[in-house]
Amino acid sequence: MMAGIGILLWACLFLGLTYAMWKSIEGYTKVYLLIAFSALFLIGVFVLFPYLKGFTVASAQQGLMMFSPYFR
Amino acid sequence: MLNLSLIWELTKRDFTEQFAGSALGMTWAVVFPVINLAIYTIVFGQVMGARLPGHSGVYAYGVYVTVGLVPWIAFQNSLSRSTSVFLEKKPIISKVRTSMPALLIYISLSESITFVITMSLFLLFLLLTGYSFRINLLLVPFIYFLQQLFAFGVGLLAATLNVFIRDFKQLIGIVLQLWFWFTPIVYVRDILPDAMKSLIRFNPAYVIIESYQRIFVFNAEPAYRTLIIMTVVTHLILFGSYAVFRALEKDVRDFL
Question: How far apart are CA B143 and CA B138, in angstroms?
């Protein structure tokens, strides 16, 4: 769940940034910037996704440990 | 520069033209994927009795083939059709002021519609057969995006060169055939000789297809590090292709 929301937020952030960049820059430079943005976006997805998944499991386990003595 | 309405119009026309004039019309857009999926899953799994090593499931091999073939077909069609797009869309290029690389987008979008329909039906099939869905499935759109970006990068370079050297389209066709058999889509990697196994790691299509196979068939994590390297390589190709196109754009327009 956390991973899904995280990736969705990441995608929204990049869509917004890309749109702002595309509108504000003139000429062919923006195509090269678009490629750079796309690379950053995908690298971000492949870095964030496993991290967020791990974060979900770890935080859930931590929560259980805190609130129930049976999980100690 | 980027004529979005033109791209959308071309995408719609490209997709609907396949079924224009037929009595069933757009129904064929669903019938074809259903038939293909039935061949991959039921015919391979049940009729021919093909099994995936280490998996006893009847549909395991069918799922393995489907998650390899469906993205491969999208990639293959995108790349092969992109190669000749400048020549085929010569009337548009000469009449409408538009970015030429943007013309490749409509091919990718049209292939993506077929991909989405087929994968939706495939997910429905998985749901009906009691498949346990994992969160890793969320990565599929991003892996597909990466795959299509790779096809776009290579396609743009091929489309530019094809204007000057018309044999390029045939060459790409041959390369794609060899590429298909060099990628473990209908066979498993383990049957390859050791020398080939180490070489196959450098096959970009393998990186992509293996990611789908890991997610759908083996319920495992895709190789994130390899995907990051693939992302970097793909974007370097995109940079290079666009730079080559920009350098040759005037000549391309003159030739057309």
Answer: 10
* Residue A39 distance to chain B (closest CA, Å): 6
Round to whole Å and give the CA distance between B252 and B157: 12
Q: What is the mean pLDDT of each run of 10 residues along chain B (256 residues)?
A: 77 81 78 82 76 76 89 93 90 81 89 91 89 88 96 95 90 94 89 88 93 91 93 96 92 84
CA distance B106 to B112: 10
| B1-to-A23, B86, B99, B152, B156 alpha-carbon distances in Å | 12, 16, 5, 18, 17
Q: Which residue, among B142, B215, B219, B237, would best test binding to A if mutated, counting the most A CBs under 10 Å from its CB?
A: B142
Query: CB of B162 within 8 A of CB of B168?
Result: yes
Q: What ipTM does the predicted assembly reach? A: 0.85
